[in-house]
Amino acid sequence: MKLPMKKFLAITLSLFFVASFKAAAKEPGIWVKQKNFAQVNVACVQTYTCHPKEDVLHPDDVYVAVSKPELITGVCSAAGGPAGSCNECLTTPPKTSCVWELRKVKKN
Protein backbone atom coordinates (compact mmCIF):
# COMPACT_ATOMS: atom_id res chain seq x y z
CA MET A 1 0.00 0.00 0.00
CA LYS A 2 1.39 3.37 -1.01
CA LEU A 3 0.82 6.45 1.14
CA PRO A 4 0.38 9.82 -0.53
CA MET A 5 3.30 12.16 0.21
CA LYS A 6 1.19 14.67 2.20
CA LYS A 7 -0.17 11.92 4.44
CA PHE A 8 3.33 10.48 4.95
CA LEU A 9 4.70 13.91 5.94
CA ALA A 10 1.77 14.55 8.28
CA ILE A 11 2.31 11.22 10.07
CA THR A 12 6.09 11.75 10.27
CA LEU A 13 5.75 15.28 11.66
CA SER A 14 3.11 14.13 14.17
CA LEU A 15 5.40 11.37 15.44
CA PHE A 16 8.32 13.81 15.67
CA PHE A 17 6.18 16.31 17.62
CA VAL A 18 5.00 13.62 20.07
CA ALA A 19 8.56 12.34 20.56
CA SER A 20 9.91 15.87 21.07
CA PHE A 21 7.17 16.78 23.53
CA LYS A 22 7.73 13.62 25.57
CA ALA A 23 11.51 14.13 25.63
CA ALA A 24 11.09 17.63 27.07
CA ALA A 25 9.68 16.24 30.34
CA LYS A 26 11.77 14.51 32.99
CA GLU A 27 11.50 10.76 32.72
CA PRO A 28 12.12 8.16 35.45
CA GLY A 29 15.40 6.28 35.13
CA ILE A 30 17.15 3.47 37.03
CA TRP A 31 20.02 3.53 39.52
CA VAL A 32 22.96 1.37 38.39
CA LYS A 33 25.47 0.06 40.93
CA GLN A 34 29.02 0.71 39.72
CA LYS A 35 31.57 -2.13 39.70
CA ASN A 36 34.17 -0.48 41.95
CA PHE A 37 33.61 0.55 45.58
CA ALA A 38 35.70 1.88 48.47
CA GLN A 39 36.28 -0.26 51.57
CA VAL A 40 36.32 1.45 54.99
CA ASN A 41 37.05 -1.29 57.60
CA VAL A 42 33.96 -3.57 57.54
CA ALA A 43 31.89 -0.91 55.80
CA CYS A 44 32.06 0.23 52.18
CA VAL A 45 30.95 3.12 50.01
CA GLN A 46 29.23 2.31 46.72
CA THR A 47 28.53 4.70 43.83
CA TYR A 48 25.23 4.52 41.97
CA THR A 49 24.71 6.34 38.67
CA CYS A 50 21.40 7.24 37.05
CA HIS A 51 20.60 5.98 33.53
CA PRO A 52 17.55 5.97 31.26
CA LYS A 53 15.66 2.66 31.40
CA GLU A 54 16.24 2.17 27.66
CA ASP A 55 18.72 3.49 25.11
CA VAL A 56 17.87 7.00 23.95
CA LEU A 57 18.47 8.07 20.37
CA HIS A 58 18.99 11.80 19.97
CA PRO A 59 20.54 14.29 17.54
CA ASP A 60 24.07 15.67 18.03
CA ASP A 61 22.83 19.00 19.39
CA VAL A 62 21.08 17.28 22.33
CA TYR A 63 22.46 15.30 25.27
CA VAL A 64 21.01 13.10 28.01
CA ALA A 65 21.08 14.89 31.38
CA VAL A 66 20.70 12.60 34.43
CA SER A 67 20.48 12.92 38.20
CA LYS A 68 23.80 13.32 40.01
CA PRO A 69 25.56 10.11 41.17
CA GLU A 70 24.81 9.00 44.73
CA LEU A 71 27.23 7.52 47.31
CA ILE A 72 25.65 4.85 49.54
CA THR A 73 27.28 3.31 52.63
CA GLY A 74 26.99 -0.45 52.86
CA VAL A 75 28.49 -3.54 54.49
CA CYS A 76 31.37 -5.60 53.11
CA SER A 77 30.77 -9.19 52.09
CA ALA A 78 33.37 -11.86 51.33
CA ALA A 79 31.04 -13.07 48.54
CA GLY A 80 32.70 -16.49 48.33
CA GLY A 81 36.22 -15.12 48.85
CA PRO A 82 38.48 -15.54 51.89
CA ALA A 83 36.90 -14.78 55.27
CA GLY A 84 37.42 -11.17 56.28
CA SER A 85 37.82 -9.97 52.66
CA CYS A 86 35.60 -7.37 51.03
CA ASN A 87 34.66 -8.59 47.56
CA GLU A 88 31.17 -7.09 47.39
CA CYS A 89 29.56 -3.99 48.87
CA LEU A 90 26.03 -4.83 50.05
CA THR A 91 23.79 -1.79 49.65
CA THR A 92 20.33 -0.81 48.60
CA PRO A 93 19.82 1.65 45.72
CA PRO A 94 19.40 5.34 46.60
CA LYS A 95 15.99 6.46 47.88
CA THR A 96 16.19 9.67 45.86
CA SER A 97 14.58 9.78 42.42
CA CYS A 98 16.64 8.98 39.35
CA VAL A 99 15.41 11.08 36.43
CA TRP A 100 16.72 12.02 32.99
CA GLU A 101 15.83 14.47 30.25
CA LEU A 102 17.10 15.61 26.88
CA ARG A 103 18.75 19.04 26.85
CA LYS A 104 20.10 21.20 24.07
CA VAL A 105 23.89 21.53 23.90
CA LYS A 106 24.89 25.09 24.71
CA LYS A 107 26.86 26.75 21.93
CA ASN A 108 29.86 28.91 22.83
Q: Describe it for me?
A:
The chain has 108 residues and is of the alpha+beta class. The protein has one domain. 19% of the residues lie in helices and 43% in strands. The chain contains 1 helix and 6 strands, in the order αββββββ. Strands 3-6-1-2-4-5 form a 6-stranded antiparallel β-sheet, with no helix packed on it. The longest helix has 20 residues, at 5-24. The chain is elongated and about 70 Å long. The mean pLDDT is 85.
Number of spatially distinct domains: 1
The average pLDDT is 85
Proportion in helices = 10-25%
Structural class: alpha+beta
Strand order of the largest sheet: 3-6-1-2-4-5
- Rounded to the nearest angstrom, the distance between the terminal CA atoms is 47 Å
Concise summary:
With 108 residues, the chain is of the alpha+beta class. The chain has one helix spanning 5-24; strands spanning 27-40, 43-52, 62-66, 70-77, 88-90, 99-104.
Question: Mind sketching the topology for me?
Answer:
Layout lengths: L4 H20 L2 E14 L2 E10 L9 E5 L3 E8 L10 E3 L8 E6 L4
Antiparallel strand pairs: 1-2, 1-6, 2-4, 3-6, 4-5
Q: Which features characterize this protein?
A:
alpha+beta; six-stranded antiparallel β-sheet; 19% helix; 1 helix; 108 residues
